[in-house]
Each structure stands twice: as structure tokens, then as C-alpha cells.
Predict the structure.
Amino acid sequence: MQYHKIMGVAVWLASGGALAAECSDVDAAEKSLDALIALQDFAELEPQRAQQLAAEMQAEVNAAMIRAGNAPSAEVCAIYDETILELAPQGRIAGPVPAG
């Protein structure tokens, strides 16, 4: 499933790597895990749509990392934030939305 790919990105981000000053490696790791949790929660309600969102997020993260020279960046954090926000306004997930 796509969740394994997302988790792979989350683990990679958590393992380190230089990030833009606007988004530390800790920020990126937390945001990636928050997005993964939001997608998993949403998958309980709409599994096919969650899979589609996961694939879209993964493609955007991959493209952003390539643009940043294969390193995570503030753009990567923004993608995770957008995913969380896309799910949160409809009350699909519980918990706070991280400040961007």
C-alpha cells in the first residue's frame, strides 16, 4: 500500500538530512508522521480516496525533494501541512493542525 511508501519517507526524514531554516529535520519528521496518521485515519472512512491522496502526496514530496537536490525542504513540510489541512477541515481527523 501507499502507506508503506509514506512511512519510508517519514523514516528517512526522521533519520536526518539538512533542511531549509524554515523547516528543521524534526519539523519535517513530525509533519510527515502527522500526515501519515491523518491518511490512515481517513482510510478507515474512505480507503480509495485515502490511497489516492497518499499517492498524490508522495509524488509531490518526491518532486520537491528532487528540486531541492534530493533533500527535504520547507516545500516538503508545506506538502505535509496541506495534506493534513485537506483532511482536517471536514472533521475527518482529530487533533491539532500543526502551525505552518
Observations:
- The chain has four helices and no strands.
- Residues 2-87 form one domain.
- The chain has one domain: 2-87.
